[in-house]
Structure prediction request, 1148 residues.
Amino acid sequence: MSTEEKIQQELLKRFSFLDGKVRLQRAKRLFADVPLDDFAAVLEYASRELRFPILLTITGLDEGEDLGFIYHLAREDGVTLNLKINVKKDGPSIRTVTAYFPGAEIYERELVDLLGARIEGLREGERYPLPDGWPQGQYPLRKDWNAKALKDKEAE
Amino acid sequence: MLTALFSILVFPGVVFLVAFGFIAEFYDRKLYARMQNRVGPPWFQPWADFIKLAGKESIIPEEANPGVFKFMPVLAFASVASAFLYIPLWREQALLSFNGDIIVVVYFLTIPTLAFFLGGWYSRSIYSTLGAMRSLTQLFAYEIPLLASILAAALLANTWSLGEITVFYSRHPWLWVINLPGFAIAIITLLGKLQKVPFDIPEAETEIVAGTLTEYGGKLLGLFRLMMDVEMVVCAALLSAVFLPFGLSLAAPLGFVLFLFKIFAIISVLSLLRTVFARMRLDQMINFCWKLLAPCALVQVLIDLIVKGVIAR
Amino acid sequence: MHDIRIPVGPQHPALKEPESFRLALSGEKIMEASVRLGYNHRGIEKACEERTYIQDLYLIERICGICSHAHSTCFLQAVEELAGLEIPRRAAYIRSVIAELERVHSHLLWLGVAGHEVGFDTLLMYSWKDREIVLDLLAQMTGNRVNYGINTIGGVRRDISAALAREVIKGVDALEKRTRYYIEVAKEEPTLINRLSGVGVLSRQDVLSLGAVGPTARASGVGRDVRKDDPYAAYGELDFEVITDKHNDVYGRTLVRLKELLESYKIIRQALDNMPEGQLAVKAPRNIPAGEALSRYEAPRGEDVHYVKSNGTDKPDRVKVRAPTLANIQTVALMLEDRYLADMPIVVAAIDPCFSCTDRMISLKQKRQRRRVMRWEELRVYGIEWYRSRGVDFSRLNNSLKL
Amino acid sequence: MRFGRPGKMIRQVLDSLIKRPATTRYPFVKSAAPEGVRGQIIFHPDKCIGCRMCMRDCPAGAITIRDTGNKKFEAEIDLGKCLFCGQCVDSCIKKALEVTKGFELAQLDSAKLKVVFNAETQKRPPQET
Amino acid sequence: MGLIKRIVDRARLKSPWILHFNTGACNACDIEIIAALTPRYDLERFGILLKGTPRHADILVCSGPVTRQTADRVIRIYLQMPEPKFVVAVGSCACSGGVFEGCYNVGEGINSVIPVAAYIPGCPASPKAIIDGIVKLLASLEEKDKR
Prediction:
């Protein structure tokens, strides 16, 4: 019963709606799909009780009509837990996690810039990583966007 | 009249100084490079730099005051060149000397720092303003120990004229050994005056781009760099005259060679210190100068007074 | 002294790379600092989605010129995990040797840059002269001084012959002598120590909350090293210690990096001594089956994280790169507050930023009074803007040049 | 504020004054690049069968293979784009591409960066670029 | 007058001061440029100094494909430099956008923004290649002066 399986059992015991959604891909790699509205509770539980103090990064995915966000959490002994949530493209905005991980501010600002995610509670600051002259509403990492769209937008 | 003109314009005057300044700069850069295990620049490098800068288009910033901006390098160079006339090269007698010319020489050598300040302040760029402020604060740090150590030697010789100082020390050969600590302090503070590495804070390349010289380019920059070389030669000559007074009664050619050797020795020490130290922060430099150098310089003055008292009886 | 705002960069002798800082100074003290990056943002993640895995390999390798092997190996571990490939032991050993040689050349490079930032150019000249030994070894082993291109999907492209291994051991011995000399210099040269100690202080608590990684974290006592926590390539079978330090400042980071060099030499000798026989690479399919993988790697600057999602074709669906400097850059604003302007270059250089990895930024932290900075005003006071208000006014000129 | 014993590097700096400088006088003394270094990529038109695998795998799109009639091909390698990574050499099943150690490729006008390899350039010896 | 012009031209070739700007490169070429100043290659024997401000520089050494944000910075720096000035593009990215061509935030190398005098291919261009490029540029200027 390796530590990863112990963590998997604790997660399933704590949150019943997670069963069947927590995958152990290989040693030290746990993947879990979490519904949006319970995400805050799962994150709170993982970072406090399960002792995942490090947020490696947040990956943004464009999955057709909704946006996927994967929060990669890690522990001192190397086990990583990747929590995935899905949000409709024009659906509700998500809460910022800077309360638990102050370092997440950059990752969230990048999501806003490159994928057009709406994150509330994010502090006001410089845009990142796109240049200032970047036209509004152009999200480079969206599947339906490509460099030519930008060139002809600038041509107008 | 003609010989006076000749000596002002050519021999210990401007032409000799410019040539000697360039040779000194080449020697300093070559030694610096060799100590870093590099080959270093060819012999004509300082000349090529100066001529190239003279050939470049010089841009006067719009908001800068053109008068002051252009005049500062000329003022600095003039003051440094005229300081050289009062320093006895290898004969006891300098070209011009009167009682109190040591103060005039030290005053002339402070004008370049003032020129840096005004040049930097009037070129209106943030970096050069910061550089200008730094060069002034630095002036107060290194000026006191430098002055104290030079005047200590003068006090012992009981005169304010450079010529008489050298005469005094050549008559009492063993007295200049007492001034050796003063000589060490003078060399360290000289690094501050010439803005060499441990104290090149106003021109700190990695912090404020090029400090006071950020806005200067072309001819004016060339003149400023020439002024810094000449200042190095003049200060080295001043220190060698005050602290290394031996071998002054030799015949002209041998005396001149000994004089050159003394100046190159001082420049080698400056170059070695420049290679081996990291740059100090402004607050560290002020602490270092006030807490360590200034007290030592005052102790040096005390020693000289005591020795003078002993000799007088 | 009124509050003057000094923009530094994006073109600045201290900063090898384009990033611009806006420091609010009162006198010599920095009251508040903001970093504006994004100059290096090239849109690599989007480009990865439009190219095949083989082309991506060379693109990912050029994210950062100094830690190219880090990014390429990290990316390949994810792709090999997706394709279910088990790379031969010899390839894993060769990857570890090249990784450690890259750490050696990166740390020597940082030592020189740190010396240059505090005006100690002799240290730059000597440490980069020694760095040439490592670069020659790497050029012989991989074919290029940097951006080695020794990795391919499923293993490595070149072998390390016995003669080459002896050459490497000879080079490593010479470098070990030089590194011990640099440790002595770092411990005894007072002008260097005064400029490094007490600067860029980062407490253990700040490291944990802001998530700093690599030597920056280890210098504050947080012993986090992916080679030990989540071993990859051949690190599971090699023994070495994780160097930590209690100084919490730039001086501590210098010592950590220098002692890590000694550990790297130990690892290289071990890996070369018991290098297993076997083939160099496994045949890799052109189309990678669908799936997602996360891979971590201990780059010279800290922990490098790659996330790859594949959809069965020969082009990845999503590649996410989190470079180590991104985690460390957050601590720069914290370290810069109420320090001297003269410390700014060394504090920035202390985290050994690699902005080409990151092109990230941190937010402007308004410390005391709330200052509303106008949008247009902010655009004008910008990086190189202070040239504009002097000399020729370029805004009229700009539109005449083709952009 | 530590004063301690300054000038730790004095001994090292002084004895490099005596030693020969570590500079290789490059343009005047041509020293060969280390063994196995990847320089300019050259193309042998006779071996090429026109499968264009190299064009597909080139990360920078630096090589273009053109058909010059009756199963003969010519290649144009754009040195401005080429990364000298050698992936095309590995992907070429007919070994028509080869890595050399040439690195003096600087040009003053960008047109000269595009090097064409075909039948008649084969006869001329590879001129010093 | 001819003599003075020839002397100034020769001096200009013997003391080319360089200014380095990284327009979004992966900093491999920047390291090689600085490595060319260190003891093993030592650019100072050609009289080359690395200067911090465009006012002092003659040659602008650029590395990296011009990203959108550095585009107008490069132009400003080029305009700040006093005549006569030259631009050297180091590395494949600077010559033509290299491996990053086609990325949305990247242009096609330095010559799409400012006139370039010499191109040095290589990824990264080794210090020897950089020295070779600068020597070729200086040699071509020498011929131009003679004519």
User: Anything to note?
Assistant: Chain B has one domain: 13-312. DSSP finds eleven helices and no strands in chain B.
